Each structure stands twice: as structure tokens, then as C-alpha cells.
Amino acid sequence: MVAKLLDGKELSKEIRNKLEQRVKILKEKGIIPKLVVILVGEDEASKVYVRNKHRAAEKVGIKTIDIKFPKNITEKELLLHIKKYNEDNSVHGILVQLPLPKQISEEKITCAIEPEKDVDGFHPVNIGHLFMNNPHSLPCTPHGIMQFFEKYKLPIAGKNVVIVGRSNIVGRPMAAMMLNNDATVTVTHSKTKNLSEFTRQADILIAAVGRASFIKKEDVKPGAVVIDVGMNRNGEGKLVGDVEQKGVAEVASYLTPVPGGVGPMTIAMLMEQTVKFAERSVQIVNRKVSNS
């Protein structure tokens, strides 16, 4: 068996093409989707992510405002800037690039962004809606992963899903999305004993642990769908995932490559959510007009 690769580059391109049409309709109504991206400090990986987001936004017609602050900015100052963009009706989405310097609480910053402008989907209100199976704004990486299952018509209901990693960014919201689609979900983590006993039972295995080539061929059930969320540098400086791709491809039925798998989908979902928020703003204005 050789796994079929789930092509995130191609799927994200399809999504962007559809978004271009949606943005065109918005602009005909006088609405330009606008995304504010805030970067604090000089983290090189964060700078790359921000540049990629800016390029993707330009391609679909979203206006981005990239705001850069020095790493010594105070929490109070940053909160004041977020408040300004919360109150700006021309801004549809706000994203603060993580990680943040030690003097700034990521939790406070996440909670300061209005849930209606939270394109990352991390606000506790939005996470609560997700776990209640009434999602408003979704974390972009898990949301992007769900697009693979829709595109390739991969069944979820009744499947055993094992997630390796319990982060607030991927593992926990991913578990909620799979539960909402009627899967039986197990979340494993650094304290899980005999991890491979769990992973070998997975019909769908999602690796989001942040350790290069952590999941080996012997950890995977033959025929499993394997989603590799990892973005790591190996000893040679090469970008690799959490899954040992060559070996796992011999037993899995489907596999996301690294690079070119989950990464492009994360950015595509950020764009999709920004456009959705802009469309929602039009609906709100229309309701106000009809009720006046």
C-alpha cells in the first residue's frame, strides 16, 4: 500500500479561487474585507507566517494592515491598540501573531479581541460555541484539516480518532470538531502511557506534538488516515512533520505531506474566516436597515 497524499496546496488554491469571487461580490457592495495582523518582536518564524498571510490575503483581495511593535511593548499598550481595532467598523478580523513576549499574557490578549473579529477562533466564547456544536469562529488549523475530509469524502462518523497533542491551538479544538462529526475521540499527550497502543487503534490519526518524525510506521494502523500537523526542522535544517513520512506512507491509506499539507490550509481558513466576517457585517447592516 502507498498512501494517497492529501494535497493542501491544491485544495487551498481551490478555496482561494472561490474566495476571490466572494470578495468581488462584497466589493460591488462597497465592502472591502480588512484583516489586521499584529506582530510583536522579531521572532523569525512569526515574521515568515505574517508574510505568508499577507501574500495570501492580497491574492484573494483582502486588505491587510500589518502592525509591528517592539518586543518591549507593554501589555497595556497592546490592549489599547486592540481596543482601537475592535471599535473600527472597517476592520473585520484581528489576529495577534503568537508567541508573545513574556511580559504579555497571551490569555489576556486573546480575550481582548472581540469574538466577532477573532479570525484565529481562540477566544473562549468561540471555543465554547465550538464545544457546544454551534460554531461561530473556528481555529484555523483544525478547520483546515476538516476540509480534507470533505474534499476527499473521507468518512468520520463512527471512526476511532486519535489525536497526539492537546494544545489549545490544535488538539483540543480538533477533538471537538471530530466529536461534532460523530467520531469516537481519544486525545493523547506527553503523560500518556504506551502511546503506540492508542495510535495503532486509530482509523484517523492526527499528529500535533511538535517533535520531528515522532510517529513511525509501527505506530500506525494499516489503512489509517494520517494527518501530520507538525512543522519541525531536522538536524539538516529540512522542514519535516511529526510523522516519519516515508515509512508511514507504506501503511496509511491517506497522508498529508510536509510541507504542502496542513500548512496551506491553515492560511486558507484564515482568509475564509475574514471574508465570512465581512459578509456577516453586510448582513448586520441590512438587518438594521430593514428594522429601522
TrEMBL record:
For this UniProt record, the keywords arranged alphabetically read as follows: Amino-acid biosynthesis, Histidine biosynthesis, Hydrolase, Methionine biosynthesis, Multifunctional enzyme, NADP, One-carbon metabolism, Oxidoreductase, Purine biosynthesis
> Which chemical reaction does it catalyze?
(6R)-5,10-methylene-5,6,7,8-tetrahydrofolate + NADP(+) = (6R)-5,10-methenyltetrahydrofolate + NADPH; (6R)-5,10-methenyltetrahydrofolate + H2O = (6R)-10-formyltetrahydrofolate + H(+)
Which Gene3D superfamilies does this chain map to? Answer: Leucine Dehydrogenase, chain A, domain 1, NAD(P)-binding Rossmann-like Domain
Pathway(s) this gene product operates in, as recorded in its UniProt entry? One-carbon metabolism; tetrahydrofolate interconversion
Q: Please give the InterPro entries that the UniProt record associates with this protein.
A: Aminoacid_DH-like_N_sf, NAD(P)-bd_dom_sf, THF_DH/CycHdrlase, THF_DH/CycHdrlase_cat_dom, THF_DH/CycHdrlase_CS, THF_DH/CycHdrlase_NAD-bd_dom
List ligand-binding residues for NADP(+): 165-167
Please report the stretch or stretches of sequence annotated as the Tetrahydrofolate dehydrogenase/cyclohydrolase NAD(P)-binding domain.
Answer: 139-281
A Gene Ontology molecular function term for this protein is: methylenetetrahydrofolate dehydrogenase (NADP+) activity
GO CC annotations on file: cytosol
Instruction: Return the Pfam families for the record.
Output: THF_DHG_CYH (PF00763), THF_DHG_CYH_C (PF02882)
Similarity comment text for this entry: Belongs to the tetrahydrofolate dehydrogenase/cyclohydrolase family.
Role description? Catalyzes the oxidation of 5,10-methylenetetrahydrofolate to 5,10-methenyltetrahydrofolate and then the hydrolysis of 5,10-methenyltetrahydrofolate to 10-formyltetrahydrofolate.
> Subunit info?
Homodimer.
What name does UniProt use for this protein?
Answer: Bifunctional protein FolD
Q: Which gene holds the coding sequence for this protein?
A: folD
